[in-house]
Structure formats: structure tokens, C-alpha cells
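Replying to the earlier thread about multi-chain prediction with a worked example.

Input:
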Amino acid sequence: MGIIIRTKHTQPFIPQPDDSMIICRCEEITKGEIRKAVYDGMRTINEVKRYLRAGMGLCQGQTCQRLVLGIIASESQISAGELGHITGRMPVRPATMDYIGKSTEHSEGVERYESK
Amino acid sequence: MKANDKSADVIIIGGGIMGCSTAYRLAKEGVSVLVLEAKEIGNGGSSRNAGGVRQSARDIRELPLAMYAVSNIWPTLSEELDIDVEYVQNGNLRLGKTEAHVTALTNLVKKSTSVGLDVRMITGNEAREICPYMSDEVLGASWCPSDGHANPLHTTLGFYKKALEYGATFATGIQVFGLQKVKGRVRQVVTDDGIYEAQHILLCAGHASRAIANTVGIDIPVERETSEVFVTEQMKPMFGQMLGTSDADFYGHQSAHGSFVLGGMGGLEKFTSNYYGDETHNVTLPKLSRGVIKYFPDLANVKIIRSWAGQYDVCADGVPVIDNVSEVPGLTIAFGFCGHGFGIAPAVSIALCELIMKGKSETIDISKLNYDRFAAKG
Amino acid sequence: MKRYEVIIVGAGPSGLSAAIEAAQSGLQVVVFDENGRPGGQLFKQIHKFFGSKEHQAKIRGVRIGENLLAQAKELGVKVILNATVLGIYKNKEVSVLIEKEVQNYKADAVIIATGAAENMIPFEGWTLPGVMGAGAAQTMMNIQGVRPGSKILMVGSGNVGLVVSYQLMQAGCKVEAIIDAAPRIGGYGVHASKVARTGVPFYTSYTVLEAKGNATDGSVSSAVIAKVDERFKPIPGTQIELDVDTICIAVGLSPMSQLADNAGCEMTFAPTKGGNVPVLTQDGETSIKGIFCAGDVGGIEEASSAMIQGKIAATAIAQELGYIDHDTFEEKKSIYADSLLKLRAGMFAPGSKGKVIDKTDEGYTISKSILTHGYLAESELSDFPALDTSGGEHIVIECTQNIPCDPCQSACPQGCIIVGDNITLLPKLSKEKKCTGCGLCVGVCSGQAIFLVNDSYADGYGTVGLPYEFLPYPKAGTIGKALDRSGREICDATVVEVRANKVMDKTAMLVMKVPLAQIGSARFFQPIGLESLEGVS
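Result:
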């Protein structure tokens, strides 16, 4: 990501006819909400994600990341490659606390630590 | 500020919640503010914490900030920022499973009540009445009914949005290397984008602050410590309290969205080779999961969606430094928040605003958070 | 902690190839795949692959998958299915969910071969039932044996859109249109042509505006498309409403690179590779020593190159762990690199993405008709080298773009067809050798671009032998219509014979009798009274 200068918007927010279109299906975030987030000052994919939850759902942005990036890019006039990406996070597929907690192999140090 | 203008009355280094909220307050007062951020707005601890808005179990030196924020700012912050910060004031339970835990909690409670905080010890059964999902293993808890939690992402970005509206400028993607004095005052910020200049500089860049302060001869004893937080799938509303445990098994809450946001440490992070990365550690998430299940068996089948790591900036004596640096005129610093800065941030920014504009904090007592308090023992 | 020398994530073409290569070198290897069956996307690829013999050209993807599995089994490669890798750590530790618990494994090297996921485009109604990825539709019909719908709009004319359109027709669906927002068809001309000649219209510079849902269950009942200007904005008044019940989206793939990101590998945004990809060395190694990526996860290509990338990564690991010496490594690597280079040549190469190419490598003008309508204009064909104008029985090769493919060359027992070593060059006809009319090349050509034409069949009549993959094969004597390259009915036609043998692997040569004047135009046979076509698989 390069330098992004953020200042107060000078024009009013202009609604568009397709603003109600869903972009992030997991969290049901619309195109209009994403455009408004950019208008409010959000610039990177992670800022928009944190502001709206777009890309925070079960698929972790696998479907909508591209679309959200496209909307931010066109609203902010910053190229999509400069807007960052949704970080791949453990677990990359949802898994229950039970399954994860039952992690059968700990490194030896941890067992020592936990049995203190 | 024009895009190529590299000066402002005040430059704030660090676009986290401290920087954003102080920029908001200063800009609202008509001060020209420029915030320099290395990555994105709220990239550090501000977006990575578990959202506690807590007064209980705090060091009494920073308790005035917490109590001020809870009494005067948090309840109306959503209206003030025009964004739902999801502030919920349903109390904080700090849980103990052993007699030793209960003793430790009791001591914490004594300290807090001595300065007027409404916090008390309750039994395991009383705790289960407040939060029915809790396991029978809980023997006792500290209970602070005026504590709560909020959404750190919305709060940080809400302050940022409002700061923009009041005319503050933010420049992200700029790496600050250090500070430079001109004629006795700190004046310049040296960056990978050249020199930026201001009358006053506020340094609040989390764990990155120490090295920057070092460039004008100030060394505050802070070090990084990795903690992790995970978030689950959306669940029906189960409990509204902020939770913690005496043994630091985990901390966190259920968010307005329905997901649980829970965090903690594995204990080994410090000793592993990737300690300073932002990667999560292999043992932490399983350990936290087991910890949560012990206290809340019903959460065993809740799916974890993602986890992340963040860096505490841990100060040697457990509370932050929030002060004007008298020996470097023009420099104000605020870091070393030790992983509990989020809840007090809206009050910290009031103190910072006053430190910058009036030379001292008048509204809130931060006198014990002075920068020159550190001395070797003995 | 349990430990393997190599852990491979993903049992698709790349992962399996890597596992085979690693096992052949003596490495102890395990493959995890989150799916219940191995093979990745290979088992739904019922079409014949391109490339050269070394790339398993002219073999259907599904058979390549079977071969890979058999080879892996023979070598004792451990493939653990329903094993979902949740995270990979810098120290090459892998957390994998197997059954009901997460197990952690260490490895000396990890190969991430997780492939890609389909892109979507948003439009009004895109979340309605009936809108799906083209790959999802392909899974439904080719794996689960379910027709995704009956009347289809395909959005996207890249190879996926074209290949899946053809397979949808083979499954008995009607493809109402293939649209693309770009002014040109994105996939191979030969793929477009085999769809176009069945009568599927192409709309280039068109986008989908809306999926309308029906009143009963809200599923798709029609699609509104519109022409777009050069900035991809819809032009008012150009809307067309299409009667479809299914909209398939084939607008590219995005690498599933989250595990590499999670491990802390350096990432980069590369639009030509499909999005966020790890930065890789030539061997496929990420910025973290010992963590490799192979296949689409490192940049979207296709299965053939993914398989080679898997082998290269495994070879590099074999050297690193001392199973092969440096010279052996260099030798193998150069063979694989050459093989990869062959696939990455031509006008559809990854490096040519987004470029407008007007001339073939040989200097022929690229057919404009094929780029906009999906079929060759007859007038354009005469410019190309494989047009035999001699009398009698002869072949016409309608292969006019530089794509990496050469099975036709070895298919002809007489040696009539010449491609040469550079497999992206267009096939030429030998001046010395004479076609015997065997038709093998017609069945072998993965692009279904070769026709056997006889202008002296009977008085006033000729025959056209065309590649045919719809079941049941019509019997000799079946009467129908001959369609031209655009799918337009041009004359009556009668099936003379349907020739198929093992080499042709279910691509039959259907020979139809047409009036002599039409042998240059007639390129498909439509039996009268047949409601839908059913394909081979």
C-alpha cells in the first residue's frame, strides 16, 4: 500500500440506483453501504471490513473481496492493488472451539508450561 | 491541508484510537491536525483488542481515566460520533476457579473500592445468576456492574470519521523514522516521505513509539507482547457481560452482531522465534478454546471464524505514559497502554487535547502517568 | 509432534503431481484434502486437455485424475481426505482438522496446492437461486449427475465459460446465450466455435443487468442483458430479456491463497494472476524457506501447468532434503521448465493477458469473426495454412489461433499434419503426404476443429465429417439439418456414418451428406425432432 491522504469530503453523498444490491452475502452488506463507507473516509479493504463487516462472515471474503475492492477503487480513484487484502487467518475454514481445543499434538514446551 | 502540504499545528504519529480520538477533539477545537500512520487507520491494537470498557481490575493510577470515560463519554458516544459503537454496560465478571483466584480477585477489589469504584466479590452462584451459561467450576468472581464493552473497530473508525469531518487530515502509508528539534523545540517528523513539520507533536504509535521517542533522547520502558483474539460465528444473544478470568485464561464478550470476541495468550509467544510478527501462534488458539470451554461448556460447539494476533505495548510498571515531555518542548507522548487502552481512549484524548492546548490535563487526573517516573529499584 | 518430510495441502492436479514426484524421489509425503474425494477439479473436466503428449494432451481431465490417483496409490502416497487444513505456521507446522479434532503436524517442507475459487459479479438478483458459478454447474452435472437448469445464460466467454457451455449442452441443457463484457471472446477460438456451430449466440460487449425471479419460489425466470460502452457502462435502450432459468457466472478465478498469507508468506496483488498471490521463486518457493505453492494458488493458469508446477516444487524439495543431487535436480527442472514454457506460449499465455493480439505468430490476421461471434467467417479461413483445396477426400483444419496443442500432428498415420516442435504454431498440411480419410485427426483434436470433407461423394453431393460428442450417436440414414459455423440451418443433411474408435475416445466422427455447394459451410448436424443433445462422458 502506498501513501493515501484522507481529508474531509467536499461533495454530498449521491445515492445510486443499484445501492441496494447485496455485495457481501455472508453479512448482507450492500453496494450503497460500501460506497458510503468510502465517502465517510474508509479507504482500504480492511477499513471497510472493520467499518461494515463486509468480508467478516463465514467465507472470510473469498467471494466479496474482489467486489468490495472494485467498489472502493472506483469510489476512491485508488487502484485496487493499493487497497490491501483481507488477511488469511487461522482457521481458514470455520471449526468449533471443541475441535480446535482438542488439538492433539502440542509442542512439548506447552505441555510443560500448562502443567506448571 | 493540501495533499502536498507537509505541515500542521499538531502532527499526531499513530492512527489508532488514541490518535484518531485526539485528532477529533483537536480538530473540533479548530486546531489544524495531521495524523501520520504507517499502515491503515486502526491497524494496531485498536482493531485487535476484545472491546473491554472496564474500570475494575485496573491500576488505580489509570482508574480516573476509566471512571471518567464510563461516567461521561461512553454512554453517549454513539450519538457523538454518529456511529453505533455498540456500547453495552452490563457489567464485568472476573472469574475465579480456585481459592487462590478468589484471594487475588478480592485484593484487586479492595484496591478499586479504595478509590470509589463500585466493584465487589460475589459467589459462584451469584455469578451464575448474572450469567447462567457459566460452568459450576466458577467459585467466585469480582463484579463491577458499571463496566461494559464496545466495538473497538467502530469506535476507532468513528473517531476517525468525525475527525475528518472537523477537518483533520490523515496520511496513511507513511513510515516515521524519528523526530528532530529546531531551535529548542521538537518540530520535525522524519519519514519515508520526507520531513513533516508541526508546532506540536503527539506520539501515540503503540509499541512503535519507543524507538521514535529514542530519536530525541527519551526512552520509556515499554516492550511488545503478543496477544491473540478470535471471533466466532453469529450466535443468539447469550450474555451481555464483559468477561475475564483471574488466571488470564481468556477475556472477551459477545458482540452486538452475536459473535463472541475472545482473546488471551498462550504463554509461550514471548519465547518463540516469530514473536514480533503479526502471525498467530500455533498453540494459542487451542489453549484459549480449552480455557473458554472450561468456563462456558455451551460454547464448545460454536465455530471459530478467524483469529488474529496483536501487540500490547507493555510498560514496565503496568500503566501508560501520558504526558508532555518537559525536556523536549513541543512533544506529548501517550503509549505503554499494556493492552487495556481501548476502554480509556475516549478519556485519554481529552487529557491529551488539554496537554497540547493548555499544557496540562485539567479535567482528569493523570498525574501518576508522568513520563519521568521510572527508576531502578533499590 | 508428528512429522512428515513433505506435507501437501490439496489433492488436485498440482498436489497429486507433487506427491507423486516427491514419492518417486523417496520422500515421505502426506496429502491433505478438505474434500471427500481427491482430484480437485479434474473429475469434472470431461473435455480433452490441450498441450503436447508430455502434458497428457487429448486425454480427458477425468482420466488424468484417475491416472494420477492410480500412480499415487502405487507409490504408497498417503492421501487423507476430509482433512481440512486450518492454518499453516512459519515453522512449517500444519493444523489440520480431521474427523473431530485438530491435529498438528510438522514438516520439513510444505506445498500449498489449494487451487482457486470462482469469481462472482454482482447484479440485481445475483443472489437468487439459479445464479451460480460455472464451475458449480459443472460439479452438479459432471459429478453429481444433476442438470443445473434447462435454459442457461453463460456470463463470461473465457475457456471455463465456453467449456462449461458445451458440457451443459451435452447434459441436455439449452444454452441461450454466452455474453462477455469485453469486446472479444476470451477463451480459445476452437472452444467458442464448437459451441457456436450448435447455434449458441455470443454477445460480446454485453453485461448482465438483472436476474428476475419468478413469483413462486423466487428462482431465476429471466435475465436482462445490455450492451456496454468501452468503459463497461451499460448503454440505455440496449436491454434484451432472455428466457432462462439459470445464470452461470464464468468471470475468472481467484487464488485461494489464504493459507500462504496465514503462514506469513510475502503476498502481492497481481491482476494477471487473479488477485492476491504469494511471491514465488521459479521453483514455487514462497518468502518462507520450505513453504512452496503450486498450481492456481500462485496464479491462475490451468491444470496442465499446475501439474508441472507441482512436480517442480517437489523436485526442489527433494534436492533440499538430499534425496536427489544437484545435477539431477537441474536436469529434471530444465525438462519441467521447458514443458511449462510450451504451455505458457501463444496468444492465450499468462503473459499475454489483456493484450490485444491481431496477428498469429506466423503473421496471419486473427479472425475477427471468431473473436466477436465465436465462429470463423468462411472468407477468413482461406487465409490460413491448413486449407486443402485439392479434390477428393481431404481435411480442413479450422485452427486459427496460437494455442499450445499438437495431438493432430501425431494423430495422422500418414504424417499429413505438421505442427513442429513449437506446439503453439498453427498446424499445416504436408504437400507430399496424402490424406486417406481415416478421420482419426477429427476425433483426436481437443479443439474439435478438424473436418473431413469429400467433394466427390456422389453426383451433386459431398460429405462433411465432423467431431461429434452428443449421445446417442445418430444412426446412418438419420435425416436432419446441416448447420453452418454460426449454427444457422443451411440445408438438409443425411448421416452417412458415425465413426468412433478407442483412439478417438468418444469423440465420434459424424459423416453427413450435404449438397456439394455446402461442404465448405456445413459444420454441424442437427437431427430432426431431437429435443436436446446428450453428451458423452
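DSSP finds five helices and four strands in chain A.

Feel free to reuse this layout for your own posts.
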